[in-house]
Structures are given as C-alpha cells and as structure tokens.
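hiii, so i know i said id send this last week but things got crazy w the move. better late than never?? heres the sequnce for the chain we talked about at the cafe, plus the structure i predicted for it. fair warning i was half asleep when i ran it
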Amino acid sequence: MSHHAVGHHCGLFGIVGHPDAAELTHLGLYAQQHRGQESAGICTTDGRRILHHAGLGLVTQVFDAVGLRSLRNPTAIGHVRYSTAGMSCEANAQPLLFECVEGPVAVAHNGNLTNAADIRRRFEEQGHIFQTSSDTEVIVHLLASPEFRNNGHSLPKLLEHLEGAYSLLLLFRDRVVAVRDPLGFRPLSLGQTSGGATVVASETCALDIVDAAHVRDVEPGEIVTITSAGVSSERFGSAGHERGAACIFEQIYFADPSSDVFGDNVHLVRAAMGRRLAEEAPSDGDLVAPVPNCARCAALGYSHASGIPPGRAFTTNHYVGRSFILPTQDRRDLVVKMKMNVIKEAVRGKRIIVVEDSVVRGTTTRGKMSALRKAGAKEIHLRVASPPIRHACYFGIDFPDPSKLVATGREVEEIRRFLEVDSLQYLSEEGMLRCVSMDRSQYCTACFTADYPVKVTAPMENHARQHERLRAKVSDTP
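okay and structure toks below
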C-alpha cells in the first residue's frame, strides 16, 4: 500500500513589502477559498526567522485576529489546499516549513508532481525521513540535498528534476521565490499594490481583493525572485516549449469567474462556451437553468444565443463547500442535498434546458435531475458546456480513476439513460477550444482526449488506483 498522496488543486498567495502581510495573505486566501477547503496556512518572515500557522478547515476556521497579529511581518506566503487524497491530516497542511542547513524554508505548491514517488523512494533509501504524505515534501528534500545546497544557482537545476504540474511559492528568510513549471499547467500571477508591495497569487481575484494591480503572469518555466529590493527573473527548463499545458479545466470549472486565467477572463470564456453550446446543441424549452452555480456563466451564454429566457431551478446554500472536491461519494451526495433545493413552482410543468459546466462522476448530476422530475418538470434537456471527461488527470484535478467517470466507456446515449434526462448533448472539443484565446497546442485537454502533455507511466496509473483505494479505506474509518 502506497502512502503517497496524489496531487492537489490549491490556491497560493504571497506578498513582499507590506507591514500587514499576514492580514493581506489571509484576504488573498479567502478570495481563493474555492480552490481548496481542506486546510489553510500562512508563513511570514521578518528577515531572521519564519513564523508558521496552518490547520485543517476553511480560512475563517484556521485563522482569527489574534493568530494573524502573532504572524505580523512584512513578507508572507499562504496556501489553501484541497486534498485529492484520503490523507487529510494536519501534517499535510501547507505551507510546509522545514529547517535546512541554510536556515528555514517554507514551501507552498499547487499541482501534482508525477515523479514524486520515484524521488521520494530514492531519498528514503538514503535514509531520509519524511514527515508528510504530500508530494510537495520531495522539493524540500531536494533543496536540502548537498547536490543543490552548495550551489549558488541551484534552483533551476533542482527544478529540472521535477516532472508534472507545479506552481510553487518558496519562502526564505529574505525573499519569496515564485515558480511555474515549463508547461504552465497551473496559473500564477504577479501584482503590485499602490504602496509598492509585490503580490503573487494563483488567481487574479486574489489580487483584486487586496487592491493590487495585475502586472503580468509568471511565465511557464520562469523563476521570479521577490525581495524588498525588487523583482528579478530567470528561466529554466528547455525554453520555448513547442507545446504548453494550461489546464482547460481551470476555465471550465475551477477558477473564479472574476479572475483572468491564462490571458482570458473566466466569465467571458464560460459565457462563450454556453453560446457555442446553444449553436451546437439547440433545444426547445421554456427556460435555461444553470446547475450548479459555476454553470451560471455558461447558462447565460446559452440563453442569450438561443433566445430562451434564463431561469432558476435551484436555490443554493452558500455555506456548503464544493461537492466535487470532497473525498467520498456518500459525502458528495449529502452535500448536494444540503446545497441544492429545487424551486418547485418554477419548474412544474416546464421544459427545462439544464446547463452544467461539466459532468464528472455523474451521480450528483443524476440526483439533481431526479429532484427536478420529482418537482414536476415536464422535460429535462441537459446541455454540458465541456466535452465528456473520459480520462484520468495526473496533474492535480481529482479524477484519477477513469472507471469512476460516467463518460468512460459509455456513449452519450448510455450516459443520457443513466442520468435519466430526455436529451443530453456536450460541447465539442473544437467548440471548447474556440472559446479560449491561446493556440490549442498551449492547453492540456488530456481528461477529454487522453493526449497527455507529460508521459504517463504505468506506475503513475497504479499510483492513482492505490490512491483511490487508500481514500476509500480512510473514509471508511470512523
């Protein structure tokens, strides 16, 4: 049984040169709470030592005013984590803080290292002791190893040992270093406050909340070093990659609609996907209703293009987290029940075009469709603003086991029967890619196409399966 946690989709935030760095980091994490609800953490430095506070739960549960005051320093990094592993424990809460020969270092990571298990095995054979089950910890062991430690320009060489998806923030006593992998899987943006503090965040919505202007994105394969003296940059990896791997699922589901991700505003991309969906998959109906909340932008686009009025079929309880990122199916089902309530009077006797942003496992969607039927909907036409998800993601989105995906091995008609709707159509891959502005070679669409930007080895597939088993085991323990 492997105890290595498979990656995580998370939110990062860092700031250099602000007296209330911890307070602003707290706000920046709060703005990115949608990226992870399992744990939160902040590390700050005064130039001599690094202070650390992290715990399980939402940002508001982990930090209070007293805790934030105790972290008061001019430089900080923070992290919100959503576990894609059953190993939901305090030790895995990031940033991870370690003491090395050179002094303390804290690491916050968004993504998934596909070769973490191999690197870890090598270190363990040399007698290294690991404190977490997180793939992020191998980065710290690399940083502390003699091979890189005594080399002033060691970071680019160290990063060439990592494979897969990673946006990183490293906090040293005197600086923050921001890194984005050479394929650019996960977003990372730089901003500046009017007072001259430099900010770095996974999403631009976090820059907005602290009144920082978006300066530019960290480029794929770039290392940005931020000190009180300013910002410097260097490249690593084989520069000028022919292809990129910006995760298209950021645009479809994960990112906040107010963010600009990979050069596009998320809301506008989703609305465009909805419009295309209306062209590719028209339907007669009385109203267009989004399910769940994140499909609102696509539903508006569909309504606009089809001329069918927008409506609401569900109310949402905003105090419940995102169901897709919960570890077990039972918990996901319960959360959907708690979260969604059908507005019976709005749907009774109506032909409803339901717009979803994506259908992953299918069970939660099926539950919602059945609730609409019970409430008296006359017809349900489901339109999905992305193609069918048929393949595992190894880069930090939580669908590692293809056998759990409703679209794997099923034709659309079979999926329609499983979901119990009157008609079902998905946006085409071509239609999806026409809604984003970079060339199609710059996106990772592997969950739809199996065209993996990084070689996927058999051990990784086993790793994903072991992780699923581990997760089932953890969720069964009382």
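btw The CA atoms of residues 153 and 463 lie 33 Å apart. thought thatd interest u
miss u guys!!
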